[in-house]
TrEMBL record:
Descriptive protein name: PTAC14 protein
Domain SET: 64-268
Keyword Mitochondrion in annotation: no
Gene: PTAC14
Domain (Rubisco LSMT substrate-binding) ranges: 350-409
Record-level GO BP terms: methylation
Signal peptide (from-to): 1-21
Keywords: Methyltransferase, S-adenosyl-L-methionine, Signal, Transferase
Molecular functions (GO terms): protein-lysine N-methyltransferase activity
InterPro entries: Rubisco_LSMT_subst-bd, Rubisco_LSMT_subst-bd_sf, SET_dom, SET_dom_sf, SETD3_SETD6_MTase
Species of the source: Symbiodinium necroappetens
């Protein structure tokens, strides 16, 4: 058990990293033709005192997004947008600060509802129409899909979450309408339709950024012209923050860039399920993705697979595991990192378990979980690669989601099998590798979008 104790200490003293940004991806959809809306927006930004060396275009990968218009060095500012040109939730700072998007009567509503109502209120205002009219069609989200299409996710829990998101939206629309009625507001004279509200909410979910405005308003969610056209990357070419002046949002290069290179940044440290639900895309090689599984499910998999020692669980050891709380929690399986609690539980439950045995047990459980899907990884890839596919974008989104989960399970299974062999040949080297994997496990970000 010494290696487990060392692993626990390593994990406990690892600094937690949480995401600052929540933004959607538009670049993971089908390539589209270039749009000059970005050029018009940049001119608008310059007239207000901002500047930039980016434009909206199709990059070398065939993805629509932001690219640089001239070479840049790491640390160079690529885009500077004055705060007065951004819309924020409930922000009431000085005139140099972000503009409060929502109507005064919406201040007690959730942040995303405030922003959505603000978007609807300002769509026809000349000062904001250029920005808001630059948006493409709202992304296809699971909440809007039929039950038959949602089944393509091959995950009942995901279907329930998609339905819950729709129910939440309906309740928030009713809350907004009630707040408008209670305030006796003259603007708007006629309240927006539920369809308009859903449109605005989809764009808020898929376009907003989270940023600390410090003395100008603290933590706020912003809608930022032109910057919101950038694509996602877990290893981004840029980051954004409050500039040195404290009066503008600045997008800065994280590495040297050449003319035409894509300008990307992180939308947040979220699993694929979260991106699919709220942003309408599934990222490639997401280091924050995971598949949650219960200890009970893992034990069932090992028993069905005939894993040595499985099925004959000693009552005393099982009670000890239950008391530890592991059995009551969902355990996140990541592409390169097994959950520590699962390793501890299996070490206690499997008779005469060694490190290699425990790692192979988790690998077998991953194989079992993958085999339970109705389609194979190869079949899913064929669907996505088919040029004659007639499936809707929403269905293809769910096929990508389930495919990435299978790839994650395959990757973790292979990693653990390889590490088990190292344990048999060089235990000290294997312990160091395992500790590194456990320490690199990304903490779960706050996924609260509703």
């Amino acid at each position: 058990m010494r290696w487990l104790q060392v692993a626990i200490a390593t994990v406990l003293f690892t600094s937690l990293q949480t995401g600052l940004f929540v933004r959607p991806d538009v670049g993971h959809r089908r390539p589209r033709t270039p749009c000059r809306a970005g050029d018009t927006l940049l001119n608008w930004i310059r007239e207000a005192g901002g500047d930039g060396t980016v434009k909206r275009d199709v990059d070398a990968r065939g993805l629509r997004g932001l690219v640089v218009t001239k070479p840049a060095r790491a640390g160079d500012i690529l885009l500077e947008v004055p705060l007065g040109m951004t819309l924020a939730d409930g922000c009431e700072g000085p005139s140099e600060g972000a503009v409060a998007a929502g109507p005064p009567w919406s201040k007690q509503l959730p942040w995303n509802v405030q922003l959505a109502l603000g978007v609807l209120a300002r769509r026809k205002e000349p000062d904001w129409s250029l920005f808001l009219d630059s948006w493409p069609a709202a992304p296809t989200l699971p909440k809007d899909m039929e039950d038959e299409d949602l089944e393509e996710a091959q995950d009942e829990d995901f279907e329930v979450k998609a339905g819950g998101t729709l129910f939440w939206l309906e309740e928030r629309y009713e809350d907004a309408f009630a707040a408008w009625e209670q305030a006796g507001a003259a603007d708007p004279k006629i309240f927006w339709s539920e369809e308009e509200f859903r449109w605005a909410m989809a764009h808020v979910w898929s376009r907003c950024c989270r940023l600390d405005l410090e003395e100008l308003g603290g933590i706020r969610r912003l809608l930022i012209p032109l910057l919101d056209m950038g694509n996602h990357d877990s290893e981004p070419s840029a980051v954004f923050d409050l500039g040195r002046s404290g009066r503008a949002v600045c997008l800065s290069a994280t590495r040297d860039l050449q003319e035409g290179d894509p300008v990307t940044y992180s939308y947040g440290e979220h699993p694929n399920e979260h991106f699919a639900l709220y942003y309408g895309f599934v990222p490639e090689s997401n280091p924050y993705d995971h598949v949650k599984v219960s200890l009970t499910k893992v034990l069932q998999c090992l028993t069905l697979a005939g894993f040595p020692g499985a099925g004959d669980w000693e009552a005393a050891r099982m009670e000890e595991v239950v008391r530890s709380g592991v059995a009551a929690n969902s355990l996140p399986l990541r592409a390169r990192s097994p959950p520590l609690g699962l390793l501890q539980a299996l070490f206690a439950l499997l008779p005469e378990a060694s490190e290699a045995t425990v790692l192979r047990a988790v690998a077998v459980a991953c194989q079992c979980l993958e085999a339970e899907y109705p389609t194979t990884l190869k079949e899913d890839q064929a669907i996505l690669d088919s040029p004659s596919s007639t499936l809707a974008d929403g269905v293809l989104l769910l096929v990508k989601l389930r495919m990435e989960r299978k790839k994650l399970l395959c990757s973790l299974s292979q990693t653990l099998q390889d590490l088990a062999k190292v344990f048999e040949e060089s235990p000290e080297q294997a312990q160091a590798q395992l500790q590194e994997l456990l320490a690199s496990a990304q903490p779960e970000a706050d996924d609260a979008m509703t």
